[in-house]
UniProtKB/TrEMBL annotation:
<dbReference type="InterPro" id="IPR036514">
    <property type="entry name" value="SGNH_hydro_sf"/>
</dbReference>
<keyword id="KW-0325">Glycoprotein</keyword>
<dbReference type="InterPro" id="IPR001087">
    <property type="entry name" value="GDSL"/>
</dbReference>
<dbReference type="InterPro" id="IPR035669">
    <property type="entry name" value="SGNH_plant_lipase-like"/>
</dbReference>
<keyword id="KW-0732">Signal</keyword>
<comment type="similarity">
    <text>Belongs to the 'GDSL' lipolytic enzyme family.</text>
</comment>
<dbReference type="Pfam" id="PF00657">
    <property type="entry name" value="Lipase_GDSL"/>
</dbReference>
<feature type="signal peptide">
    <location>
        <begin position="1"/>
        <end position="23"/>
    </location>
</feature>
<keyword id="KW-0378">Hydrolase</keyword>
<protein>
    <submittedName>
        <fullName>Uncharacterized protein</fullName>
    </submittedName>
</protein>
<dbReference type="GO" id="GO:0016788">
    <property type="term" value="F:hydrolase activity, acting on ester bonds"/>
</dbReference>
């Protein structure tokens, strides 16, 4: 059972200026980067089968709306990383942890649901925190790079090389990141708000060390998502009774949680500004996923979605919670956490993870670069652009 999926539950846009600058940029029309591969690092927002391979498959109805069955993803269909792959004309990423039916010719995915930037000193059996913290994912990458290169050079027949990345393409690949939300969610659980706030610089510094390490190993093109509005996750708001006035914002999101995320994002952005000066031969793009998600949540009707705090899959009633894909016997009757009839009209698929429709909406709003700093479309997110 996907314990880590439950865990996570414990788990204004600047458009006018962007359009202008972006238009200026396009008038010079630089050629696209033609990334040969994507290497992704992250948590359940971009896990395409890592935790499923390591700890047991995610059950149906996950995956039902695109893959026609569970596909190692915590959604009813594609994740933002899948839309990035589509946009770049590359195949969906196989998980590094998955030993079956994988193809790494155009990249690999090191993301694992429940992962944090910092090591958490707890096992997955406590609160679903993944053992694959960002530093471990980077270690996995190092090993992936050296071993695939070795295998590639040793391979005699073209077939033996067909599922391996070209060693020379590592420096031209796109390195994508979507991680941080579980450090913050874990902090909400274990620390006071001032303690968590005081820990943010260390979390950001660990993030930066991973980027620096990858740069030293030859990575040059980085696409880094900030963290979304965690205070708007239905799972976070589910158990709150008798909130004090002002606890929620106009859309029902927990204000203090979102403020913490905004502070994390601010520190991340400023650390990335410094990294850009430090790592001279890199293109490092900071992507404001928070604004995209919050804009969607605050305009759900306009974009054709239902109440952002409603969950499509799972059943939550006064006396019980049956999470998506789970079955419980309650007073002798079996209750199943099934999918709603119209997943595409929900933002939240299971209370923690976004639906495919919402992921697609967010992807449409970030991939063209309008929420990027600097303002690059993902196809132009490389050096010399
Ligand atoms: C990017 O796409 C979004 C969604 O389609 C659109 O609202 C925005 O204006 C686009 N921005 C640019 C710079 O093309
Ligand atoms: C984990 O434990 C080590 C050693 O006690 C400590 O330095 C580190 O800060 C802890 N990590 C977290 C996230 O609490
Ligand atoms: C199960 O039955 C007991 C006794 O009738 C009742 O108090 C309780 O609320 C029921 N639980 C649920 C989840 O319906």
């Amino acid at each position: 059972m996907a314990t880590y999926s439950r865990i996570l539950l414990l788990t204004i846009l600047l458009i006018s200026t962007s359009i202008q600058t972006s238009a200026e940029k396009w008038s010079n029309a630089p050629p696209p980067c033609n990334f040969p591969a994507i290497y992704n690092f992250g948590d359940s927002n971009s896990d395409t089968g890592g935790m499923s391979a390591a700890f047991g498959p995610i059950p149906p109805p996950y995956g039902q709306d695109f893959f026609h069955g569970p596909a190692g993803r915590e959604s009813d269909g594609r994740l933002i990383i899948d839309f990035i792959a589509e946009y770049l004309g590359l195949p969906y990423l196989s998980a590094y942890l998955d030993s079956l039916g994988t193809n790494f010719r155009h990249g690999a995915n090191f993301a694992a649901g429940g992962s944090t930037i910092r090591r958490q000193n707890e096992t997955i059996y406590e609160n679903g925190i993944s053992p694959f913290s960002l530093d471990i994912q980077v270690t996995n990458f190092d090993q992936f790079k050296s071993r695939t290169s070795e295998l590639y050079h040793r391979a005699k027949k073209p077939f033996d090389k067909s599922q391996l990345p070209r060693p020379r393409e590592f420096s031209r690949a796109l390195y994508t990141f979507d991680i941080g939300q579980n450090d913050i969610l874990d902090g909400f659980r274990k620390l006071t708000m001032p303690q968590l706030k005081a820990a943010l610089p260390d979390i950001v510094e660990h993030f930066a060390s991973s980027i620096i390490h990858l740069y030293e190993k030859g990575a040059r093109n980085f696409w880094i998502h900030n963290t979304g509005p965690l205070g708007c996750l239905p799972a976070a708001t589910l158990y709150i009774t008798n909130p004090k006035p002002g606890f929620f914002d106009n859309y029902g999101c927990i204000k203090s949680h979102n403020s913490m995320v905004i502070e994390f994002n601010k520190q991340l952005k400023s650390r990335i500004d410094k990294l850009r000066k430090q790592l001279r031969r890199a293109s490092i793009i900071y992507v404001d996923v928070y604004s995209a998600k919050y804009h969607l949540i605050s305009n759900t009707k306009y974009y054709g979605f239902t109440d952002p705090l409603k969950i499509c899959c799972g059943r939550h009633e006064n006396n019980f919670d049956v999470w998506c894909g789970q079955t419980m016997i309650i007073n002798g009757s079996e209750i199943i956490g099934v999918s709603c009839s119209s997943p595409a009209s929900y933002i939240s698929w299971d209370g923690v993870h976004y639906s495919q429709a919402a992921n697609q909406w967010v992807a449409n709003h970030i991939l063209n670069g309008s929420l990027s700093d600097p303002l690059f479309d993902v196809t132009h997110a490389c050096l010399n652009h």
